[in-house]
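Weekly puzzle thread! Below is a chain. First person to post its structure in token form gets bragging rights.
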Amino acid sequence: MKSFRIASLCVALATLCLSAVARAADEPAKPLRALFVLGGCCHDYAHQKDILTKGIGERARVEFVVAYDPSTTTTHLNPVYENPDWASGFDVVIHDECTSDVKDLAMIDRILAPHRHGLPGVVLHCGMHCYRSEGWPKAIIPWFEFTGLQTTAHAAQEPIAVTFLPGDSPITHGLANWTTIREELYNNYAGKLLDTATPLARGKQTVRDRRQRKITSDNVVVWTNNYHGTKVFATTLGHNNETVSDPRYLDLVTRGLLWSCGKLNPQYLK
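Winning reply:
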């Protein structure tokens, strides 16, 4: 009789455990908390902050805190970085600022420190052209170590044919090649990414020089980077609002963001 009671108790406990696991599996995942830093020169950040947060939020369980700096210069530091603990409480940071002439090494180190210690990052478009400290353009400055790309310029705006590279990256799984509207193709200085980076897509663009001769460039436009063990997703695409609002662009950035956090799975994809 005693053995029967013990067996019954074990069955009851197992049932309760299985029920709890089932309920946990049915509950939606806790949203990621993302800090979205943007502002500075040359882009319609006032609208792009809304386009991107809405588009990513419709695709994934991500909640945003937006640090938008309305300054339109390359010299103004986003005020969010004035706090030494600027990244506290966030699961990922999206860098979409355009501040090439913010050069103070102590401040750049403050920006990079959370990422060196494991905070995932996403870098979009002009985020690649920021924080050009001493030694730029020939030296691999601290910011380039984070982005994974040494880039110095872009061509005139013309369509870019985006081709995803063969491989097993979950970010690009199921994504199709496409051609953008008139966009900026950023160069790959010395023709390559840093050794810590892995290319995911290339962009080919044809422009005309001053003598109206056609010049075709082919550069990496999407990649991942291993920054001291931290995952970074990056793309140089995304100058114009029409590109940023393109569902193909939003799919790509969403998947890259989730990948950087180790959350590219059905629990976080909507």
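Puzzle host: Confirmed. Bonus trivia for everyone else. The longest helix spans residues 2-26.
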